[in-house]
Specification:
The complex is a heterodimer of chains A (about 300) and B (about 400). Chain A has about 300 residues and is α/β, with parallel strands linked by helices. Chain A contains 10 helices and 14 strands. Chain B is α+β, with helices and mostly antiparallel strands. Chain B is elongated. Classes of the chains: A alpha/beta (about 300), B alpha+beta (about 400). At the A-B interface, α4, α5 and α6 of A face α8, β17 and α13 of B.
Chain lengths: ~300, ~400
């Protein structure tokens, strides 16, 4: 079994008639992921790469039995789209849209929490269970996806979409392979965090070790360190933190919206310190990730 | 966008919140009596300690001090506006802040009856003086919840709690990411007055608040606390050439190894690695989202225009959206238009992924060495530095 997505995943795409969505719908289909429905209000009856488009999630669910949704709608429509999915019983929502106002994110995350729905993102590239299914844009074209992601034993969780693929490619070419990879989103406020992913990997039979890709800003790494200090981990883990030079640039935003440092909090230096204090190895280079994993697996 | 103090105060005033009597220096002379408080308007905290807040006893002194503030910089920011305020007669000071806490995924209220202080220092010194309240996403902030955390009584309790609720409404309805009033002053006359305020609203959210349209950002041409260099301004113009992808967040450094790197996370990774191997970057940047050939070519030419830059490293993570062939074409075009030979200039080209075969074909044609996906970003950074040193 794998985490969150597997053979039973049946995908809905909200905002399917958008240009970006049309591209990744084709990529998902080519990869063998069952995309069974799309929703764009007012465009019911159309189809995108032969996937039927409905006006409402309610209709899409009752006609096709979808259980997972990818939300790719403009920022100000995202709140309502996520709530519509949650209200209609979808248990996993991957939000690709970026730049959603944080107050909207607060609301849809609360709604999802009450209903027991997992929200990955916003600003996520998606999730992949190599060779089984991919949800979202992750990996790009199917043939490219196959080159970067081979089934293996390492769980990947990354705050950067591009680096989800990069790290998976590194693991694939080192022969270790990837069990499941998450692009959790580069926004300051997200649903599914590093800690959530690590806890899932701990319970996953396929995963034998965990790699985390991090950046400056936020407190997710501090939360992970706290969790590990308290509960320990059964599986080996390696964290890589990019952007150490950002310590020189207070208040400047690099890369993703979340990667901004205010004071000591959120700085790579601080993160590395608390992670190491909790006994979590922090790799000093990408290549070292593989070296550390080889020692521990 | 971070609002300057006077912008934020005008906004609060328009919502019926009391602010000190004030004028912007140069707009008109104060119609209130001295002493005056002069406050440099910069997008940063810690202004008082840096000499950005002065006092004047009469109009002559006001003029002298305002002019001297306007000639100088505070915390790296040249002062463009000076706010002149009446000096409040302070009875008590409070701290009130609203923000979004990503770890609890809610709006929170932070309150302290010790205002006018650095809240992080207070948190270390006397954590019990700081009250924190998580706000329910659907029910919002309730008046009794506010009353429960305030340590005032009598009619001040009612005044203060209703002011805090009003601030919350503004914070929530304007999509602010932070609204911090420090200090909130209780005057000797018994009024609650916002003495200083820090307000930030996400740029994207501004689009659904057309009423804020005339609130311009006065410090856009800044990176952190320094003004953009000419090269950085030019890079921003290039990024705005068209809407195809990004070739942005360009920061100039004093080395001479030109970097065309992307996307966000990979740029951070590569920049660290280049430095670790002893490379001296001429710049930082983030390309991604499939930028046009033109953007990449112009950015390449910009890099080569920097004195001393003879070598460029082109490194990205395995791409799935950006097309390798388009980046390759852009870089080669830029180098050729600069009258140089691509194979001499490019120390390393490492972008595997979408349309890589087409990209590699172009690079091969010009004799440029490229690395495939078997080489990590780390390997690429190391080889880029080797090529730059030789």
């Amino acid at each position: 079994m794998a985490i969150l997505i597997d053979e039973n995943t049946r995908v809905l795409v909200q905002g399917i008639t958008g240009r970006e969505a049309a591209t990744f719908v084709k990529d998902m289909l080519d990869y063998g992921t069952p995309v069974l429905a799309g929703v764009t209000p007012g465009k019911g009856g159309l189809s995108v790469h032969s996937v039927p488009v409905f006006d409402t999630v309610k209709e899409a669910v009752s006609r096709t039995g979808v259980n997972t949704s990818v939300v790719s709608v403009p920022p100000f429509f995202a709140r309502s789209a996520v709530m519509e999915a949650v209200d209609n019983g979808i248990k996993l929502v991957v939000v690709v849209t970026e730049r959603i106002p944080q107050h909207d994110v607060v609301e849809f995350l609360e709604f999802a929490r009450i209903h027991g729905t997992t929200v990955v993102g916003p600003n996520s590239l998606g999730i992949i269970n190599p060779g089984v299914a991919k949800v979202g844009m992750i990996g790009g074209r199917s043939e490219d996806t196959h080159k970067s992601f081979k089934k293996g034993v390492v769980g990947v969780v990354s705050r950067s979409g591009g680096m989800t693929t990069e790290i998976s490619n590194l693991l694939t070419h080192s022969g270790l392979g990837v069990s499941t990879a998450f692009s959790i989103g580069g926004d300051p406020l997200i649903g599914f965090t590093i800690k959530d992913a690590v806890m899932k990997f701990e319970e996953d039979e396929e995963t034998r070790a965990i790699v985390v890709f991090s950046e400056p800003g936020g407190t997710q790494e501090e939360e992970l360190a706290e969790y590990v200090k308290e509960h320990g981990l059964k599986k080996p883990i390696v964290v890589f933190i990019a952007g150490r030079f950002a310590d020189e640039f207070q208040g400047v935003r690099f890369g993703h919206a979340a990667s901004i440092v205010h004071g000591e909090k959120g700085s790579p230096r601080h993160k590395i310190e608390v992670l190491r204090e909790a006994g979590i190895p922090v790799a000093d280079s990408l290549n070292e990730i593989v070296e550390i994993l080889r020692e521990k697996i | 966008m971070r609002f300057l103090e006077f912008q934020a105060k005008r906004l609060l005033e328009s919502h019926g919140i009391k602010i000190p009597r004030s004028v912007l220096y140069g707009e008109k002379m104060p119609d209130f009596t001295p002493p005056f408080v002069l406050k440099a308007q910069i997008p940063s905290g810690g202004r008082g300690k840096a000499g950005g807040v002065l006092f004047a006893e009469d109009e002559k002194e006001l003029k002298d001090k305002a002019e001297s503030l306007l000639k100088g910089s505070i915390k790296g920011f040249p002062v463009k506006h000076v706010l002149v305020e009446e000096k409040l007669r302070i009875e008590r000071e409070f701290f009130v802040s609203f923000m979004i806490d990503a770890s609890v995924k809610r709006e929170i209220l932070i309150f302290s009856s010790e205002g006018g202080v650095d809240i992080e220092e207070l948190a270390k010194r006397e954590p019990r003086k700081i009250r924190r309240l998580e706000i329910h996403p659907f029910y919002g902030l309730q008046d009794y919840e506010v009353r429960e955390i305030l340590d005032v009584t009598g009619k001040n309790l009612l005044k203060l709690s209703s002011l805090i609720l009003k601030l919350y409404q503004i914070f929530h309805e304007l999509d602010a990411t932070i609204l911090e009033v420090n200090p909130l002053v209780l005057t000797e006359d018994g009024d609650f007055v916002v003495a200083d305020v820090h307000l930030e609203i996400e740029d994207e959210s501004l689009k659904r608040h057309p009423e804020l349209g005339d609130m311009v950002s006065h410090y856009e041409e800044f990176i952190g606390t320094r003004e953009m260099t000419e090269m950085e301004k030019r890079a921003r113009e290039i990024d705005n050439l068209d809407h195809r992808g990004v070739a942005g967040r360009f920061i100039e450094f004093d080395g001479n190894l030109g970097l065309l790197i992307g996307g966000g996370g990979a740029s951070l990774t590569v920049f660290d690695a280049i430095r670790k191997y002893g490379g001296k970057p001429a710049n930082y940047c983030e390309i991604g989202g499939n930028p046009s050939v033109k953007k990449v070519a112009e950015l390449t030419k910009l890099l080569l225009s920097k004195p001393g830059v003879e070598k460029i490293a082109v490194i990205m993570n395995v791409v799935s959206n950006t097309r390798v062939d388009l980046v390759a074409r852009g870089v080669i075009k830029g180098i050729l238009e600069n009258g140089k030979d691509p194979k001499d200039v490019i120390t390393v080209f490492r972008i595997p992924g979408a349309w890589e075969d087409e990209g590699f074909k172009i690079l091969k044609k010009y004799g440029v060495k490229y690395l495939t996906r078997e080489y990590s970003l780390d390997d690429a950074a190391r080889m880029a530095v080797q090529g730059w040193q030789s």
